[in-house]
Automatic annotation (TrEMBL):
Residues 268-287, 423-442 are annotated as: Disordered. Residues 431-442 have a biased composition (Pro residues). It holds the Pfam family Glycos_transf_2. Residues 275-284 have a biased composition (Low complexity). InterPro entries: Glyco_trans_2-like (IPR001173), Nucleotide-diphossugar_trans (IPR029044). It comes from viral metagenome. Gene3D superfamilies: Spore Coat Polysaccharide Biosynthesis Protein SpsA, Chain A. This is Glycosyltransferase 2-like domain-containing protein. Residues 10-125 form the Glycosyltransferase 2-like domain.
Length: 460
């Protein structure tokens, strides 16, 4: 990339009471390989111990220094830096980290080579812990992830995003829209080396509390692999030897001077503790998933228990009602609809009337038979012959006896039908008993008598 084709870069640095680190920050900037006439350096200072004197004594013409009368959140400070910046590419350099000489040049080359990417950074970081003399690797956490101290991005990114004005720490996630911004990774060896120290806004020694994490491991990389040039000896000496003594004498740089940061750190810690606890995600139609904390889960379970108890009680009540409605008490008569009862009663009454008529007819037939039997026979011309009148009389008696038999059959059928209807009638029906009939000899017996007693024949 020729000098004419290189973009103008705005280096942005927010600072608050970091006086011991500022000379080292100046050295990192002076060592940058990118053309200085293509760089401006925006520094926003909202500390109580302003570094205006150090800036003036640095003789770095690229610095544009802005003092703020009082402390503001880091998110608001970064947004203000963007307003002051004029470069087509913005590169972050924080005030307490080491940046290799190729920091700016490497970031610009990677960004310009990736047309789709709007932002670059390193998700793989290396932290040196002086109190244990060990290097640790953190990350990578994801292809679109990086910490703000490693950011470099195209100006057009600011058209679609900005920092949360109230964020004091962990401001990157919202700026990168939950890590969905088109992103490209940088080489960590050409980007940054972080040193843990007692004035860290976030005590990085706490990162070692979970050494078995899949994204935290001890590294065989050394400080010399990052700070490798002889003219950087001053920088190396500061971080490895002088830092503890200088920070111990500088009260203004203690984390207690940043109450807003401490408050947000505590809030973040509490959220992380909740996230580490087992969670239940509640999904409702038309609503976003909601993570329930233990108290909410307990309240929900108690509510479900109460509802279940009420449902079970209602279920028992309905089962009792159903049992009462479906149980048949055979000891009690079943009531049929009144219309059906009236119809059956009417049919039985009609049959009983027919039965009475049949009894009357039967009585008349028996009377006729008795009358014929009592008529004296006409005298015969000779004892050897049967008179014609006797034969006719016998025929009449036979006919009457046949009718009597038919009447008996009809009467039996009527009685059977009445009995059937009574069984169909659900309630007892008062009925008038049929008239008593005088017992009469069966027709067959009477005929046998006629055969054995010829004197019953009469003459006409």
């Amino acid at each position: 990339m020729t000098k004419k084709s290189k973009p103008f870069v705005s280096v942005c640095t927010p600072t608050f009471n970091r006086r011991p680190f500022i000379p080292i920050m100046f050295e990192c900037f002076r060592n940058q390989t990118y053309s200085k006439d293509l760089i401006e350096w925006i520094i926003i200072d909202d500390g109580t111990d302003k570094i205006k004197d150090l800036v003036k004594g640095s003789n770095i013409p690229q610095i544009k220094y802005y003092e703020l009368p009082e402390k503001i959140p880091l998110g608001a400070k970064r947004n203000l830096m963007h307003e002051k910046a004029k470069g087509s590419i913005i590169v972050y350099m924080d005030d307490d980290d080491y940046y290799p000489p190729e920091r700016i040049e490497h970031a610009v080359e990677v960004l310009t080579a990736n047309k789709k990417a709007l932002c670059a950074g390193s998700s793989e970081l290396y932290l040196y812990f002086k109190h244990i003399s060990k290097m640790y690797q953190f990350g990578p956490y994801g292809p679109n992830h990086a910490t703000a101290g490693t950011f470099a991005f195209k100006r057009e990114l600011l058209d679609i995003t900005k920092y949360n004005e109230t964020a004091c720490i962990a401001e990157e996630r919202e700026f990168l829209k939950d890590y969905t911004i088109p992103f490209v990774q940088l080489d960590p060896l050409k980007t940054i080396l972080i040193f843990s120290h007692v004035h860290n806004t976030f005590d990085k020694r706490r990162l070692l509390d979970n050494p078995n994490s899949s994204v935290v491991k001890e590294s065989n990389k050394t400080v010399d692999m990052f700070i490798k040039f002889t003219d950087e000896s001053k920088i190396k000496r500061f971080f490895l030897n002088d830092i503890d003594e200088k920070l111990a004498k500088y009260e203004a740089g203690k984390p207690s001077m940043k109450p807003d940061v401490l408050k947000q750190t505590k809030e973040i810690d509490e959220r992380r503790k909740q996230q580490q606890q087992p969670q239940i995600i509640m999904q409702q139609d038309g609503k976003d998933p909601v993570a329930l904390d233990p108290n909410e889960i307990i309240n929900m379970i108690n509510g479900l228990r109460s509802n279940l108890k009420a449902v079970m009680a209602r279920n028992d009540e309905l089962e009792d009602m159903l049992e009462k409605k479906t149980t048949v008490k055979f000891s009690e008569p079943i009531e049929a609809p009144s219309s059906s009862v009236q119809k059956l009663k009417k049919e039985i009454s009609e049959l009983e009337f027919k039965l009475k008529q049949s009894a009357i007819i039967e009585a008349d037939l028996r009377t006729d038979i008795d009358r014929l039997r009592k008529q004296p026979p006409a005298p015969a011309k000779s004892q050897a012959t049967i008179p014609v009148s006797a034969i006719m009389q016998t025929s009449q008696i036979s006919e009457l006896q046949f009718k009597l038999k038919q009447s008996s059959i009809i009467e039996a059928e009527l009685r059977a039908e009445i009995e059937t209807l009574r069984k169909q009638t659900p309630t007892p029906i008062q009925q008038t008993p049929p008239p008593k009939l005088t017992p009469q000899p069966k027709p067959t017996v009477f005929i046998e008598r006629l055969k054995s007693e010829p004197e019953l024949f009469v003459k006409v």
